[in-house]
Structure formats: C-alpha cells, structure tokens
Design goal:
The complex is a heterodimer of chains A (about 200) and B (about 200).
Chain A: H1 16-24, H2 28-50, H3 53-70, H4 80-98, H5 126-131, H6 135-145, H7 148-158, H8 164-171, H9 175-195
Chain B: H1 17-24, H2 30-42, H3 44-64, H4 74-83, H5 92-116, H6 118-157, H7 162-187, H8 192-199
Helix pairs in contact in B: 1-3, 5-6
The chains are: A mainly alpha (about 200), B mainly alpha (about 200).
Chain lengths: ~200, ~200
C-alpha cells in the first residue's frame, strides 16, 4: 500500500484502505474523500435510526470525528465500511439510550427474542399525513415504528445492502440472531403494511 | 410451522419462510439452496411466499436507498472540525514540537517568576520536597511490611506443618492468578478493530 498522498484528481479512484493510510500520513484530501464517500449513507442510516434530521447530522459529524481520531487503530484486514458502520451503530444506539426518556426503550425484548412495537406519536403532523399517501413514505413510516433493534438490521440490510456477516460484526450479534431478527422485522413490517391496507406485500 | 403442499405431503423443510428470506438475501449455503429449490419446485405455497418476500424486499431496497439531503457545506464542516480537534491524529514530530514548545514556555514562565519574585520558586521547590517526602514515607512503609512478612515466613518455616500450610495458601493463589490471566487472554481474542469500534 502506497503512503503517498493521492492528488485531488485521482483521489476518487483510490481504495478506502489506501485513503486511510494516506490520511494517517497527513493527507487532508484523503480524509475528506472518505467523508465524501460515506457521509450520505451514514446520515441516511443515522437519520432513520433517530428519526431526527438535526440530531442525525450532529451524530454523523461525531462519528467522522471519532473515525479521524481512531484511524491509526483501523486494521485494513477488514472493510473500512464495516468499521465505520460499527462506529455509527454505536453512536446511534448511544444517542437513543441517552434520549430514552423521550421514547420507549430501544431494547424491549420479550424474553423469547421477539420485540414489541413502539407506538408512534398519536398526533402525526399534516406533513406526515401527506407523506403517507405515497408508497415509499408508507415504508419509511413502518420502519420508524419498528423497535430500534429491528430497525437497525432492516436499515443495514436494505439501505446499504450489507451481508449478514457484516451486520453481525457491526452489531456484535451472533449470525443466527441477525438472520432471525431480520426475518421477524420484515414479517412485522409486512403485517403493519397489510394492516394499513397496502397490498402486494 | 408445518405446511401442506398441493399434493398433500408435509414440507420437508420445517418453517421454510426464514430460509426463503435467507435464500433471497443470498445467505444460504449451496447445499441448503439446492434443497430449498427442490422444495420450491413442488410447493405452490412456498413459491407464493418466495414471490411475496421478493416483492417486499425489492420495495424495501428501493425505498430505503435514498437518504435526506445534506447541507451544502457538510463535508467541509466535518473535515474542519475533525482536523481542529486537539486530541487524536497527530504526527510524532508534531507531538515532539508541542512538548518542546510547552517546556520552553514553562521555563520562560519560571524564569520570569524567579526574576520578579524569588520567593515563588522557593515555595514551589518546597512543595516538591513535601511530595517527595510523602512518596518516601510510602516506600518505607512498603519496605517495613515486606520485612515483617519475611520474618513471619521464616518463623513459620521452622514449624513442621509449614509445608502443608504453604501448599494450602500458595497453590490456590497460583491457581487464582492463572485463572485471572487466562480470563484476560480470552478478552484479547476479540479482533482489535472491533474493540476500537466498541470503545468508540
């Protein structure tokens, strides 16, 4: 792996691992490119986890600052994206825990590995009502209703197309649990959509 | 869940919905994949379930891919804040420079204080002396306790039952230390990059 800092022209062609290496060596353009590559997916993931736009921007910024301060600890034997998502996952869960006074518990395990639904705000805004007229908005809305432990897996799998193995590494869950929870989460979503009269699911 | 296929036979795979989900995610082993495909070929119910799940997964993928719009200066803001952090990624040379500058400033301040108020330096030296005295006392205490233990051990060594007592005390201690050590080792089996992720 070359430690020579890539130029502004070719920085977009360089692998994540090489960017990390040059960022550690002081390449500012390399870290900026890493941020540019992953800021959208990370904001998207955190936003849907927290359901709060402003906080998702703050948490994403916090995630990248932690990444910057820990670049030397990154092992290129593993995918950078997995490491980054693990940090984002921890930050999002920490944020939900800190703010758990305002919402229901994020870990509402019934004891048999299943989770209860979180009840959405009883007074949706007119904007939320308008959104629900669209198919995509219906799915977004159902995702918001999922317990955080399910929502997390749905987002990692369907928003970023991560494998079960990667999700297991990010969430620190056994592979079998990832498979089970993901299936249950989808079943819960399908049930909710059917309840709302959405066909084809 | 036992389901019945169109020919009236029970499915060979128990509760196949979860396996169908893993199949659509491309996460089934080749053996299980073949097994499931053979089952799907003769089971209408599971084929319908496969189609339903596939439709739903496609809808999820297309709905959740996009995210919210970002502020125009978001990247720059993150990079600037990250690089302006005091802690974190710093070159060794930068750290040495920082230490050098700190020491230079410290001695400069000392010099200035010494020139204007000679009593200040004497007072600070006195504080250092007191702290050193406390550490000296603590060291002496440890030394005295060690001597006491040695004396007790020597006197016990003269007793005939000492061997048994020593075994009864020392063996559990060694076992305990070994157990603690093995516990620490097992903690380190976790990949380092995951450790850093969890700490973060």
């Amino acid at each position: 792996m070359s430690s020579k800092a890539p130029t502004l022209e070719n920085v977009r062609l360089v692998s994540d691992a090489e960017l990390v290496s040059t960022a550690i060596g002081g390449g500012e353009a390399s870290f900026e490119e890493l941020v540019r590559r992953y800021q959208r997916p990370i904001v998207s993931y955190v936003y849907r986890m927290l359901n709060d736009y402003d906080n998702s921007l703050d948490v994403t910024q916090e995630v990248f600052i932690k990444v910057y301060n820990s670049l030397e600890r990154y092992s290129c034997d593993y995918k950078f994206s997995t490491w980054l998502y693990r940090i984002a996952h921890n930050a999002a869960i920490d944020h939900l825990r800190r703010n758990s006074m305002n919402s229901q518990s994020i870990e509402t395990d019934n004891g048999d590995g299943t989770y209860q639904l979180q009840i959405e705000s009883p007074n949706p805004t007119p904007e939320q009502d308008r959104e629900r007229s669209e198919w995509r908005a219906e799915i977004e809305s159902v995702v918001r209703e999922l317990p955080a432990a399910y929502r997390d897996l749905i987002l990692l799998r369907h928003s970023r197309d991560l494998s079960y193995d990667e999700i297991a590494e990010i969430t620190d869950l056994p592979l079998g649990t990832v498979k089970n929870r993901l299936f249950r989460a989808r079943e819960m979503m399908r049930g909710l959509l059917i309840e709302r009269g959405i066909d084809g699911v | 869940m036992d389901q019945v296929n169109t020919s009236g036979n029970k499915l060979e795979i128990e509760c196949p919905s979860i396996e169908i989900a893993a199949y659509l995610d491309g996460e089934l082993s080749p053996d299980l994949e073949l097994h499931l495909e053979a089952h799907l070929a003769k089971c209408v119910i599971c084929t319908q379930e496969l189609n339903d799940q596939k439709h739903f997964i496609n809808a999820l993928n297309s709905s959740l891919f996009d995210g919210p719009e970002l502020p125009a200066d978001f990247t720059k803001r993150i990079v600037t804040n990250a690089e302006s952090g005091v802690s974190g990624l710093r070159q060794k040379k930068e750290r040495l420079n920082a230490v050098f500058v700190f020491c230079a400033l410290f001695f400069f301040v000392l010099f200035m204080l010494g020139a204007s108020a000679p009593g200040t330096i004497t007072a600070s030296l006195d504080v250092f002396g007191r702290v050193a005295a406390v550490f000296g006392f603590a060291g002496h205490l440890v030394y005295d306790i060690s001597i006491g233990v040695v004396v007790i051990m020597r006197s016990l060594a003269d007793q005939p039952a000492f061997g048994l007592v020593a075994i009864a005390v020392i063996v559990p201690m060694i076992v305990g230390i070994a157990y603690r050590f093995s516990f620490l080792r097992s903690d380190r089996n976790r990949p380092e990059y995951l450790e850093s992720g969890s700490r973060i």
